[in-house]
Amino acid sequence: AMAVLRALGPWLCLWALRLPAGTGAAAPGLDIAxxxxxxxxxxxxxxxxxxxxxxxxxxxxxxxCDGQDxxxxxxxxxxxxxxxxxxxxxxxxxQRVVSVLQEGVDFDIDVNASVFExxxxxxxxxxxxxxxxxxxxxxVEVGWPCSGPLLRMAEEAARxxxxxxxxxxxxxYGTVNLLHGVNPGETPVTCTAGIGTFIVEFATLSHLTGxxxxxxxxxxxxxxxxxxxxxxxxxxxxxxxxxAKWVAQDAGIGAGVDSYFEYLVKGAILLQDKELMxxxxxxxxxxxxxxxxxxxxxxVQMYKGTVSMPVFQSLEAYWPGLQSLIGDVxxxxxxxxxxxxxxxxxxxxxxxxNIPQGYTVDKREGYPLRPELIESxxxxxxxxxxxxxxxxxxxAVESIEKISKVDCGFATIKDLRDHRLDNRMESFxxxxxxxxxxLLFDPDNFIHNDGSVFDAVVTPYGECVLDAGGYVFxxxxxxxxxxxxHCCRKWKxxxxxxxxxxxxxxxxxxxxxxxxxxxxxxxxxESAKDPEDASSEKGGEKRSSKKSLHxxxxxxxxxxxxxxxxxxxxxLDDT
Amino acid sequence: SRAKDVTMPAKLPVNFFSTRSPVIDLFRGQxxxxxxxxxxxxxxxxxxxxxxxxQSIAAREExxxxxxxxxxxxxxxxxxxWWNQGKCRKQKHxxxxxxxxxxxxxxxxxxxxxxxxxxxxxxxxxxxMTPLLYISSRSKLLDFLSxxxxxxxxxxxxxxxxxxxxxxxFFTSALHSLKKDYLGxxxxxxxTNKHVAEEISLVHxxxxxxxxxxxxxxxxxxxxxxxxxxxxCKWALENREMLIRWLRPxxxxxxxxNNELKKGPALxxxxxxxxxxxxxxxxxxxxxxxxxxxxxxxxxxxxPDLQHLGGTDSPAFDSSVPDAHMKLSETxxxxxxxxxxxxxxxQWHSISRTHNVCELCINQTLGVKPNKVHVPxxxxxxxxxxxxxxxxxxxxxxxxISNTLECSNFLxxxxxxxxxxxxxxxxxxxxxxxxSSEKTIFQTPKVAFSSHGKKDNTQHSIPHIExxxxxxxxxxxxxxxxxxxxxxxxxxxxxxLLDSNLFWIYxxxxxxxxxxxxxxxxxxxxxxxxxxxxLDQNQSLVGSTLENFxxxxxxxxxxxxxHLVDDSSVHFHEQRVITExxxxxxxxxxxxxxxNVLLLYYAQWCGFCASLNHIxxxxxxxxxxxxxxxxxxxxxxxDLPWEFMTDRLPTILFFPHQRKxxxxxxxxxxxxxxPNLLKFILHHSSLSSSEPCTKECLHKxxxxxxxxxxxxxxxxxxxxxxxxxxxxxxxxxxxxLSEARREEHRLQQQKHTLEKQHxxxxxxxxxxxxxxxxxxxxxxxxxxxxxxxxxxxxxxLKENTLLRILVASRDGKLQxxxxxxxxxxxxxxLSEENDxxxxxxxxxxxxxxxxxxxxxxxxxxxxxxTE
Lengths: 575, 867
Fold this sequence. Notes:
The complex is a heterodimer. Chain A is α+β, with helices and mostly antiparallel strands. Chain A contains 17 helices and 24 strands. Chain A has a domain of 128 residues. In chain A, the strands form ten sheets. A three-stranded antiparallel sheet of chain A has the order 5-6-7. Chain A has a three-stranded antiparallel sheet with strand order 8-11-12, with no helix packed on it. In chain A, strand 16 and strand 17 form a beta hairpin. In chain A, helix 1 runs parallel beside helix 14, helix 5 packs across helix 7 and helix 7 runs antiparallel to helix 8. Chain B is of the alpha/beta class. Among the domains of chain B are: 101 residues, Glutaredoxin; 112 residues, Glutaredoxin (3-Layer(aba) Sandwich), CATH 3.40.30; 140 residues, Glutaredoxin (3-Layer(aba) Sandwich), CATH 3.40.30; 35 residues, no CATH class; 108 residues, 3-Layer(aba) Sandwich (Glutaredoxin), CATH 3.40.30. Chain B is built from 25 helices and 26 strands. A five-stranded mixed sheet of chain B has the order 2-4-3-5-6, sandwiched between helices. A five-stranded mixed sheet of chain B has the order 7-9-8-10-11, with helices on both faces. In chain B, helix 6 crosses helix 8 and helix 24 packs antiparallel against helix 25. At the A-B interface, helix 9, helix 12, helix 13, helix 14 and strand 19 of A face strand 1, helix 2, helix 9, helix 18 and helix 21 of B. Strand 19 of chain A pairs antiparallel with strand 1 of chain B, so a sheet runs across the interface.
């Protein structure tokens, strides 16, 4: 999710950081079961009022108790909340909604839709619902997970977005008409995240359906951004997709850029793709060099690296979660603790928070119940089991219930200074905020499966091991099972190869040769051997010069002092 | 629409505390009223909260608990400092909630920053209520000085004046110190008795004394520093002695542990601590060890001043009598500890390898206290009586089978004033022998280390033999003395205390057992060396075990073994296809098993590991389970010996059967895919080696073939299910096909009907065309007629004009005739008649034309309709 970045004002150079002394150590033993039930009650309060008062509109208006279309006209809240239902364990409602969607949703409509939002909410939501439908007890087709009604709907929606990618650079337009394609006179300016946030959904679609077009356009767009980064390795906020000129040159990790970085990492994890990871690691270096100050991340000019806004944005709070996925847990925790102080000050995260002034920024005081900080809390709790992280969850439940709960749902906080409410409940509240909160308080949820249980599914292409954990969340919190990507069409060849190997292993022949080792002796000559690295073009141009000693697709192990890095304690790495 | 602009102001504030609560709740943020309330009370506690704040909600209960205990002496005021119409929000600017401010009359605010737990808050409030302790007698002085926390004493003569000079400043400095040092470690005392003051060589009223145990105690330098509250406080803070420190992380981001642990190796001692309790026997014992440890200058024994108070008249501070110290510590322990006796219960089961051991203590603090002062001597009769009472209740203790210490208090049968405490636990028999032989110097016994391979004779050089179940090293008694050890060793320890009620999580992280109820734990953490050692948890945490622990750390060849934290929550599942390995099972699973072992190092949080789950599951299902084990270890929760550590995740190691020591690492630049892993395993597995076949080999071959058979059977089964899946898919396709055919048929029919319709339509349109043409023709004819009519009318018009001319000429003729004949009347009538007839003719003509046009138009429009 993202918001459009605003004009930048001059800012104070002098800024001293407060480190507010936290008030008291963790009260031992937060009752997570009771908080889990409160989150469940929150979900149903909002969900039932949506169905009652707003369906089939996109969103509920909680103050006037009615509905409105916002991002299109696809009953968006329902699509977005679908997999949350399953995570809460409500199988029957999941099944009901699946049939409602199959009948009711039509993408042949004359609507101008955001390419980005349609992808993450609609395509992502349908894909994850499709992959979870067997678990939810929906009777699936024989070809599942490679075919199915929800998959066809996702594919249909995604095809409606493809015309946007028909540009000289391969970077998509921001808006497309679902019936007529790109409108004549459409603005060619798209934000960075609107270009680089497709690979998770589109690669999944390509792997499941066998049509490579989706993954191809997503990759092309990612590479175009990579090519247009500045000399110091940063990307700006908005770019012209025709001329590839940067229109807004603020570089940071928040609004307008956020999910681009997120998808480089998640794409690398989902696809075991070194190229994407090497891109991210290069960006990560530049981000640390130029934007990081005292565990905060600021906004800088993308060519010069000078600070343009000393601001923390609500949307940036996903970053610690992303860091923990790649093993940078220490830094993640330090930044998370910074962000948590802002929550403690207001009972929510303002869209913009001026770090040196320690207060909200004019016109950016709202909190639309965004999930990012809670999302990071979920990842960090997985990594550290630190009760401080649970305390954020507790604070979020208390704040949201006390401040934004109204008779008809949960209302966006228009102004965190006085807690005035706005007549809107964004669909990500049910898709993400509630989901991550629930998962934080439910350590035994199937989403947290560490691979100890799995499901073996027989498809016409052979047997698949599915639901073995490791779910990759798209940026709208729709989980994708990475195992499903190895289940359909040509990806099955891997398994057939493995079966051949076993056959050879058992054969009475004496001279069996398994040739992996020999290839390894060549060191760098891996790409030819590597079935997944078909594209030999590698991310970093500098790659050949500095041969990294470890695989890009790995995390560092945690240091010794991480044992004691809980309850707010952080350690400085001065080795 | 207008609904878009609908907003709603925040809900009005409501009561945060219940109306029956002893806390006054100013939920509209009436700070002015709060200030007004303060005028009437000596001690006030302000609780500034935000109603939405989780921490405020959590602290509310604690504050209420404190308030219910202290409400008669302290005014508790809660102020909603969030409500934006309230005074508080307008005047104060807090970055977090709740904020607790204390006032002692006009002095304040003193912010409380300690743990949000009722006992700690109450303790602090009590400190604010009485910042100074009154030292009225020698025994109180002794108590004050023996405390491990630094203390400042002031001597003020009250007989001279009711408010001796400097007293108020001293009092304020005590309050001031609470502002700076919110843990309240520096205690302030005031002496009013001249003789008591002399014991610590204070002579002049107004002089201050900072007591130190190891270093020389100090007198406040009046001549160097001004006598102000701030200065006194600063002086005490700068010069205090910190032999052992409490660590109380506040929960926010902090470098406390980082800063402390980077000073060097640290001994962290976790004990449950109740700040309100009057005595802390365990704490006293620990601080005694700490004092001894830091007591470097033997000539200045730890408590010379106490010795001095003990009775000798000699005012010498540097008492160097060697046995003085001994004598002292005896008195010390007698005054501080209750009398205890260890009782080993007879075995309740003769074959049992365990014993129940009880520590029986006379406890005067529980129940009715006849005398607050400690009984100075341990009365033999009392112990006897206690033992009698205890044995009468013996049976209750027989049932105890627990590794944890369980205590019970019971009333003496002989004295209604005495209670006894019996703490019992079950210990292994050999543990008892160690206890009994504690005083004999024994050699390190040979421990039967389990080992593998052929390295048996080099056990001590293999660092991974770190059997922590062996607690002998901790009992290792060396000749070293703890006294002043900190100065004699080059591995000096910093000593820290942590309250296990609040910070047990750190102990768990360092490997404290999760099952124990007794939350006592000690560990030495060496951040630089990245190791930590743990005091054997089968031993109770007492002074002597702690001493040995410290000694064993300090000596040159330390017998302490690096502690490896193990994830005890992992349960062994037979059904799992992947074997979950922990620190404890590592050796057995990997080295002792008769299989090829593939071991994956992973962490739950690492995205690159989790997405490989399905590949390893597939691998484990593919490989014959009799020859291969696919295992994994969560490296974040399980420490391993150094040589098996890794710095990246995932890491994949293969330990081939019979060559376990030659483990191979899966090359990192290969993608982790099923075929690659299989190639890797099969290449390195001993099974694929082609050696000349012996008898053993034949056996192996049969086993392999059996594996093959079961593999094939599995494969057949899989193929069968695949066939059925394909059948289903086929059926589905068939159904879809027939559906499609039906659809096609339907479409065909539709096409036919459409064609028919098309034809009729065509026919119709032809007809229409014909009528159209006909009408068109008619129209043309009509137009022609019209033209004719127009011509006719033109002719008529012409005729008309001709007629007019004719008439005019006739008129002219007639006029000329009249002029001649002069008959005017008859001529006029004639001309009028003529005029009328002409005009009537023209009108009829025009009417005719209009009629014609009308008919044409009607025909045209009807033609349109039919078309």
